[in-house]
């Protein structure tokens, strides 16, 4: 909102003005924390706010006349800005005038020449006093020191302004008194009143008894503020009934016209043309000057007229954009309506030329909202997403309503800060992993990876195994996961024959607050290795003895002697079994099916066949390398089951004539016979 204070000028430093916290309903204890600050366009800081109590006091005495010159109302505008949340209050200080200036006259003394032949009632313009105070404290009346020849009267111009005139009330006699010394006193309406006086020296003349007269007491003109030097403002005209030099008129600015205006305008001394001289560097829309018309008589007479010049504004100032406060970066979860910046937009031109419209591009998630006079708030209009756009360059365009309009642009850079609004994301819902059994401890199994579009700690992902069991044991006894990169390692060797597959979940969690997480299922399939030899299930032997099968003595061809049954705990081709005869006492009598393991006769039995036979069967898988097992089967040819099974440690066949032992005996005997023969030959040779 807005609050207005009134304070008299020249109030001493430290004097209390009010309590801003109480007046605005603000907790004084929060002023310091909310980083309060006072903003003003003045070059001086006239007021202070106590950060603890909110008391508003005078920091520097104010000179109203220096600050506001001749303005009727003197105002100081301040803005109080508070943050967290961002708030703006407008403070207006009305500086009240005190009677601290006495009336003064522009010159130290004034001279008036009066022809002696003038009749009583002749009038002479006296100078106006100037008082920098305003209202009742300004000049209110004039008095003249007592004199038998003159008295003072007040006159009113066409615009209502008053001025003093010296009126002749008794005819003058130069021969009796050539000079009259008067004192003109100006008094203001202060309490107590102040006054100023100036000597008025009246010289009695003998000639030129008519003063020039203007056609109008007040002249009015209007001119554009950007008019070039030499532009005609107005032409004034005065007449003098005298003839000759006494009737010739010269125009000039009165001494009461300020020096600034006399430098800004020129008046032609003979024609009365008022023209522009230089740049019209004024802030006031109406300028007041006094023009004097004086004749060329020996004792020149003069009169004055007022010239009022209205300066018409042209659109020569562009809007000025000032960033009063800016909050950047802002979190991406800021709700719509969050205030980002406070802007001050001013145009020094008055009227329509100083009115400004302000806008930003419609494509941005922001909008401008009017605040106090000449202030706008830049707020969010919709949700933000840092992962899509992390920063914005907002171009603010301000255009005045002049013709042609002037446009000013200013860019505000707003960064978006990250919040933890995105959980980690895996590339798939499940992962299938194949692991060979008999793996080494600590073997790398797989690496899962999740991405998080957030940044910093909000985007740093860590991995862990969710609690579960595998084959009755805790998952952590089987696997471990690297916290930082999601690599999964085996903590034990897998056995395909005991565990063929299992699944578990890996959880990815970011480091935000609160943390967000996601999980993925990993299916592990154990690949088989050929690490198990075939196991012979039938026929079986006990205590290391040979398994015996009884076959009819005269069995027919293709008689099923037995079927070797084996199993392999491995899988697929590692468990594909084939059967082979490694040894048979009679290879022509038996044959073995490689796929079924059936041992059959290849022909009908004969009475001449041996009663006992021994067959060695090899069962081999198809692994790489292949593994095998053997079984020895004893075959007994008998029509009935004997009470006691014979020993199959030998083959039951007649021993061959030339077995290894016989060969060794024959060689030994041959060597002995050769040695003995050689000895006999030696003896015979010796006797001969």
From TrEMBL:
It is found in: Cell membrane. The chain crosses the membrane at residues 663-686. Pfam families: Cadherin, Cadherin_2. One of its GO terms (molecular function) is calcium ion binding. This is PCDC1 protein. Residues 6-105, 106-214, 215-321, 322-426, 427-536, 561-648 form the Cadherin domain. It is a single-pass type I membrane protein. One of its GO terms (biological process) is homophilic cell adhesion via plasma membrane adhesion molecules. The keyword Magnesium does not apply. Gene3D superfamilies: Cadherins (2.60.40.60). Its main location: membrane. The gene is Pcdhac1. It comes from the Eukaryota. Potential calcium-dependent cell-adhesion protein. May be involved in the establishment and maintenance of specific neuronal connections in the brain. GO terms for cellular component: plasma membrane. PANTHER family: CADHERIN-87A, PROTOCADHERIN ALPHA-C1.
